[in-house]
Amino acid sequence: MPGLGIKRWIGVILIGTTFIGFGFAVIILDIYRNAPDVWWASLLAYISLRTLDRLLRAVIFGSVGVGLVLFGIWGLNKSLLRPFIEPGQPILAAVSAYRKKDRGPRIVVLGGGTGLSAMLRGLKGFTNNLTAIVTVADDGGSSGELRRNMGVLPPGDIRNCLAALSDDEAMLTQLFQYRFSTGTGLDGHTLGNLLITALTDLTGSFEKAVAESGRVLAVKGRVIPATLHDVRLIADVQVPFKSRIKQIRGESKIPEAAGEIRRVRLEPDNAKAFPPAIQALLSADLIIVGPGSLYTSLLPNLLVPDISDAIRSSRALKFFVCNVATQPGETDGYNCNDHVNTIYKHLSSEIFDVIISNNTFDGQLPEGVEWVKQSETEGFPCMTYASNLVDPEKPWRHHSVRLAQVIIDLYNERTGPLNNRDDI
């Protein structure tokens, strides 16, 4: 199979083996010519097929040698790769799949929360060239407490993305996600948050702490913050039954505020983006925004001026993945169009090439949660695609594999039907 990077090294090994054979041949020829007339010399002549034609002998010995070398290489590779191959999976299939993912599209995903980690968990099956740009506006729960007490950027969403991209989501990843339920000072904290905080202190920077955590978890891809600035999310919320607008400070308090969210912004509003995030966006083949909480996960990334400018400038295909269900206190009553138009209003521009939404509305949703549907009366100035994206066990969330498959299928059509149709 071409492109595996194996045959070239087999060739080198065969050349080396040939030279070793030349060395042994010189010794054997010397024995032939100078050995005394004793029994072992006759036995050597018999074993070496001296009675046969020289060309035939060369073919026989060469075939046996090549077979033994290839068998030895196969056995050696099988032994060396056994710890990294799933039981029952052929070595060739595993190596081929790795090389295919290594040459996969460069995908950059922006967001936060469980929606982002679910999508990453599905996309890592198609490419190793994944970059997750994660919001750092979180100020609730364990992340908020560490942010206030330790002065670090909130690690919660980044921790979830690292766990989702881990090559082995078994015991080590479960340990990374473990949340303490008891203990003075530990109640509510996750081990991963504490580990990232400790590594920030040891390495001297948050970005190095995230990188080291990724190495521990054998992460395929990168997880990077949108900005290294200590930003706060502020929302303008209209008070119910009144014309008054009140300001809500803090990401965790916005969904709890009674009223309709009119607009959100970052403080400071001129925070510089983390440079690797800009580089990833400009070199991406595909940029995906969502799924995730519209006002508290998606917009905090896009409101970093350098991030939104890089998305506009990038030549990548740009997808928006709409949520399956509404989020109480944040997007009550929203349809798919409302989500997209809210982003366009905040950015004052249209940035998406394809809108992906769910079209299956089976399952029981929690109280106060509604399906997000595509409006039948208002269209987008871009292509839309609807499919069954629901997780049967948790119908208010996306199914990671289904969503990833739809995204990859649409991306692979970018030079075909995707460019020639007004609606997919």
Structure description:
The protein is of the alpha/beta class and 424 residues long. 46% of the residues lie in helices and 12% in strands. It has helices spanning 7-34, 39-47, 54-81, 91-102, 113-123, 141-150, 156-165, 171-176, 191-203, 206-216, 275-282, 294-302, 305-313, 336-347, 400-412, 417-420; strands spanning 107-111, 130-134, 222-225, 232-238, 245-249, 260-267, 286-289, 317-321, 354-358, 383-387. The chain has a seven-stranded parallel beta sheet with strand order 3-2-1-7-8-9-10, with helices on both faces. Strands 5-4-6 form a three-stranded antiparallel beta sheet, with helices on one face. The longest helix has 28 residues, at 7-34. The two termini are 35 Å apart.
Short description:
With 424 residues, the chain is α/β, with parallel strands linked by helices.
Summarize this structure as a short list of keywords or feature phrases.
single chain; 424 residues; alpha/beta; Rossmann fold; three-stranded antiparallel sheet; 16 helices; 46% helix; disordered C terminus
Quick one: CATH superfamily of the largest domain? CofD-like domains
Number of E-type strands: 10
Structural class assignment: alpha/beta
The side-by-side strand order for the widest beta sheet comes to 3-2-1-7-8-9-10
How many whole angstroms does the radius of gyration measure?
Answer: 30 Å
Which parts are unreliable, with pLDDT below 50 for 5 consecutive residues or more? 419-424
Distance between the termini: 35 Å
Proportion of helical residues:
40-55%
Q: What is the CATH topology classification name of the largest domain? A: Rossmann fold
What's the average pLDDT? Answer: 84
The helix tally amounts to 16
**Overall 3D geometry?**
elongated
CATH architecture of the largest domain: 3-Layer(aba) Sandwich
* SSE series: HHHHEHEHHHHHEEEEHEHHEHEEHH
Measured by DSSP, the beta-strand proportion falls in 5-15%
The CATH class of the largest domain is identified as Alpha Beta
Tell me the major beta sheet: 7 strands, parallel
